[in-house]
Amino acid sequence: MTLALELIGESMLGGILVVVFSIIGEIIKPRTFSGLFGSAPSIALGGLIISAVTQNISFLKQQLIGMIFGSFGMIVYCITAYLLLKRIKALKASSLALITWFIVTYLFFTRL
Amino acid sequence: MIKNNSNQEKTIDIKSIKPCFNSANLKQIRPKDIIIRFIFGVIVSALAGIISSHFGPKIGGSFLSYPAILPASLTLIQAKDSKIESRKQAWGAIFGGVGLVGFSSIGSYLITSLNPLLVLSTLLLIWIIISVGLYFIVLGIYKLISKKLQ
């Protein structure tokens, strides 16, 4: 029951923060600058806030360490999406680029 | 990226890198776009939470940096504007990604020393400083080089 409540809280907070940062990205110009908010720590803040309230410091630290690996994946994702967008449509490009996030994050986990 | 051919569109805004608010865009945001982004956020957050509980916080933590905003944004921007605008968004998101590395690596050190909620507020500020700072540095250098090449 507690886990379910945590998940609901984390999901709702994550969803709200995604919307907030997306809206900020929509109302800011130029487009290159608003792109920063495409990589905003919205999910991270939602998850970490709930963890800060329900878990211990060691758990939070481990989450942040894992997040480092995912962040490198995010950088490679953005570069891949940028390159793919030259040739294919955004939906395909942004979906295909997700593969690079998984590969890079996995490589960081297994090599470091 | 630098315009060599007058028929090619530039992908980087070198004319103006100074950010500003365009409140008119607020009215153009459709409720459907907000709902799509909210659902994306909920799904990815739930995924991160479930993975943390089953596979441990380190693996779950990696999903805290999963691209939740960008796929929907790039698709919606191409539909509303153009592919060039989507590319600009993706380019800018790289700086945000570097900010995430700073957010998480500094956070993993600070979290054991200070109040977690205070640390998270500080980390958001750190993300802004790194992302925005890098944006101005890189685009400033790009602008200088472009001017010299003209």
Description of the molecule:
The complex is a heterodimer of chains A (112) and B (150). Chain A is mainly alpha-helical. Chain A folds into two domains: 1-55; 64-112. Chain A has five helices and one strand. In chain A, 57% of the residues are buried. Chain B is mainly α and 150 residues long. Chain B has a domain at 92-150. In chain B, helix 4 packs antiparallel against helix 5 (83-110) and helix 5 (83-110) crosses helix 6. The radius of gyration of chain B is 19 Å and the shape is globular. Mean pLDDT of chain B is 86; it is low at 1-10.
Task: List the SSEs and their pairings.
The complex is a heterodimer of chains A (112) and B (150).
Chain A: H1 2-27, E1 28-29, H2 31-34, H3 42-54, H4 57-84, H5 90-111
Helix pairs in contact in A: 1-3, 3-4, 4-5
Chain B: E1 20-21, H1 24-28, H2 31-55, H3 57-62, H4 70-80, H5 83-110, H6 116-149
Helix pairs in contact in B: 4-5, 5-6
Q: How would you classify the helix and strand content of chain A by structural class?
A: mainly alpha
Q: What is the structural class of chain B?
A: mainly alpha
What is the string of SSEs of chain B from the N terminus onward? EHHHHHH
Mean pLDDT of chain B: 86
Largest sheet of chain A: none
Report the radius of gyration of chain B as a whole number of Å: 19 Å
Count of alpha/pi helices of chain A: 5
Overall mean pLDDT of chain A stands at 93
Roughly what percent helix of chain B? over 70%
Largest interface: A-B, 81 and 88 residues
How many strands in all of chain B?
Answer: 1
Strand content of chain A: under 5%
Q: Could you say which overall geometry of chain A the principal axes of the C-alpha atoms support?
A: globular
Beta-strand residue percentage of chain B: under 5%
